[in-house]
Design brief:
Layout: H1 2-48, E1 54-58, E2 66-73, E3 79-89, E4 94-102, E5 105-113, H2 127-130, E6 141-143, E7 152-154, H3 160-180
Parallel strand pairs: 6-7
Antiparallel strand pairs: 1-2, 2-3, 3-4, 4-5
C-alpha cells in the first residue's frame, strides 16, 4: 500500500509540473499567435481587394454567414469595395473565408481555416476552385456537371456540400455588400 502511495504522489507531481509547463507556454505564446492571426486577416483582405490601400471596419449586425465587414479605401481615400469575413458550414465543419466585393462583383475569395476532408472538400481552398468566383456577381449556383454560364460555379468532385457552402457564403457576402453600396 505504501508503494502505491509513493507512485501516486510521483505521478501527481509530474502532472502538476506538466500543467505548469503548459500554462506557461500558453501565456508566452498567446499574444504572438493573436498578432499573427490579425496580420493574416489583413493579408487576406488585401488579397481579395487588391485596389484598397487601407481598410476601415463597418459596423454591421452579424447575420447568417457574414461575421465582419471592412470598407476598402483607395490611396486617395475613396471607397473601392468591401472585404467581408464569412463563415460557412461545410461537410467537415466551419469554413472561415474572406470575400472581396466591388460594385456587386466578386474581386476575390480566400479560405482561411477549414476542417474539410483532405483531398476532397479541402480542394475548396485551391485557386482552381476559388478563381471561379472572381468577376462574377448576382446569385451564383453550383453545378455538378460543370459551369454552363456565368451564374454557375463548377462543383468540386465528391465535395458538393463544401462547394454549395462556399457558394452560399459568397452569395450572402455579395448581397450584404450590395446593400451597403
Amino acid at each position: 500500500m505504501r508503494e502505491i502511495a509513493k507512485v501516486a504522489f510521483r505521478l501527481f507531481l509530474i502532472m502538476i509540473l506538466a500543467g505548469l509547463c503548459l500554462g506557461a507556454t500558453y501565456t508566452v505564446t498567446k499574444d504572438p499567435i493573436a498578432q499573427q492571426e490579425l496580420l493574416q486577416q489583413e493579408a487576406d483582405r488585401r488579397a481579395v481587394l487588391p485596389e484598397a490601400a487601407t481598410f476601415e471596419e463597418v459596423a454591421i449586425e452579424p447575420t447568417g454567414a457574414v461575421t465582419a465587414c471592412f470598407r476598402g479605401l483607395s490611396e486617395s481615400g475613396e471607397p473601392c469595395g468591401y472585404a467581408l469575413s464569412v463563415t460557412a458550414s461545410g461537410f467537415g465543419g466551419d469554413i472561415a473565408m474572406t470575400v472581396g466585393v466591388s460594385d456587386g462583383v466578386v474581386t476575390g475569395v480566400r479560405i482561411g481555416t477549414h476542417s474539410e476532408t483532405p483531398g476532397l472538400g479541402a480542394k475548396a481552398a485551391d485557386d482552381s476552385f476559388l478563381s471561379q468566383f472572381t468577376g462574377k456577381g448576382g446569385e451564383l449556383t453550383v453545378n455538378k456537371n460543370g459551369a454552363q454560364n456565368d451564374s454557375e460555379i463548377s462543383a468540386i468532385t465528391a465535395a458538393t456540400i463544401t462547394s454549395r457552402a462556399v457558394t452560399s457564403a459568397v452569395n450572402e457576402a455579395v448581397a450584404l455588400a450590395g446593400s451597403l453600396e
